[in-house]
Amino acid sequence: MSRAKLEKLGLKLPLFITSTVGSFPKTDYVLEGRGKFARKEISQKDLEALERRATEFWVRQQEEIGLDVLVDGEQYRGDMVAYFADILPGFETGGLVRSYGNRYYFKPIIVGEVTWSSPLTVSWWKFAQGLTTKPVKGMLTGPYTIMDWSFNDFYPDRKAACFALAMVIRKEVEALVEAGARIIQIDEPALSVRPEELDFALEAMHIVTDNIPAYFLTHICYGAFEFIYPQMLNLPVDNFDLEMSNSGLDLIGLFEKDPFTKDLSFGVLDVHSHVVETPAVVKERIEKALQVIQPEALWVDPDCGLKTRTVEEAQGKLRAMMAAVREVRQAIGGG
Q1: What pLDDT, on a 0 to 100 scale, did the predictor assign at position 73?
Q2: Contact 185/137 with Cβ under 8 angstroms?
């Protein structure tokens, strides 16, 4: 449990820390702006102005709803891997592939040495943090997922590509910490794709996080956790942010068999459902989480990013989540 680490970093947060996984729905004006930019009808500067407007909107929404740890909402990103590949030297853009449902992205191709020369996300983090006194998470995609969701035409094998990307992501982590970020999330949804590669995925995360003064979360969703648990707990992070609700809370069974030993961000909102949960449903899920996790180690958030929902659905789901958390806090004297 890492509450002492948070306090050492100057963060005094309530019991059942609330946050979101990262992305929010694109506002109508951002979607329209992205279309116009693609057609070369507006400039990059014009598009960024719209993205900043939407970022401020979502920061204000999170504050109004009452979340404890905020995100920038990723209004400036499309796909979580292609965004970084578009910026980093060493990548080219490949063809369209389907990621899930009817959502597609242009799969990156590693064609040369992947290098870091300047910050990739720091300006957006600083902009969002400048809008609020609450902590804003730094948000990065992890080296294993970037490697796995790209074609590799340069490095001798997957492990070499992953380690090269880990060095790049570490540079970005260092830049975020230098800018003032104290909580950093490293998204690794591909972690359970090939259980036989878990060892080098863990090594890659050591490259990213070792000896960095920050509180680290890793987000992993919709995976075959039974093949990598409890070994995945060796990942050098403080908190695992896991999808729980879409899969019917079935991970609780794994945690009953092999106790969960880190902080846990427990997904209480199914982001792939249009149904807005009631506070009673969310409260029931939190109570089930408390069967396997101590209150001091439990964070509460959605299963995954909210970008697939409408603005109204995202707002409604988060309000229900906060209402439930307030009830639970009051019941056990946590604020």
Answers
A1: 96
A2: yes
3-state SS track over 25-79: CCCHHHHHHHHHHHCCCCCHHHHHHHHHHHHHHHHHHHHHHCCCCECCECCCCCC
| Tokens linked to 223 | 């995976």
Q: Are the CB atoms for 314 and 24 separated by under 8 Å?
A: yes
The residues pairing with 239 across neighbouring beta strands, listed in sequence order, are: 217, 263
For 217-227, what is each residue's pLDDT tens digit?
Answer: 999 987 788 88
Enumerate the domain spans of the chain.
3-27+66-332
Determine phi and psi for 54, rounding to 5 degrees: -70, -35
Q: Taking the complete model, does pTM exceed 0.70, yes or no?
A: yes
pLDDT surpassing 90 at residue 335: no
What does the alpha-carbon distance between residue 42 and residue 40 come to, in Å, rounded to a whole number? Answer: 6
Dig out the tokens for 174 from the structure. 């260092």
pLDDT higher than 80, residue 292: yes
CATH architecture of 3-27+66-332: Alpha-Beta Barrel (3.20)
Work out the percent of the chain whose per-residue pLDDT is above 70.
98
DSSP annotation string for 232-252: GGGSS-SEEEE--TTTTTTHH
- What CA–CA distance (Å, rounded) separates 331 from 169? 41
With residues binned 3-state (H G I as helix, E B as strand, rest as coil), the percentages for the chain, rounded to 5, are 45, 15, 40
Tell me how far apart the alpha carbons of residues 73 and 77 are, in angstroms, rounded to a whole number.
Answer: 9
- What pLDDT score does 1 carry? 57
Residue 221: helix, strand or coil by DSSP?
coil
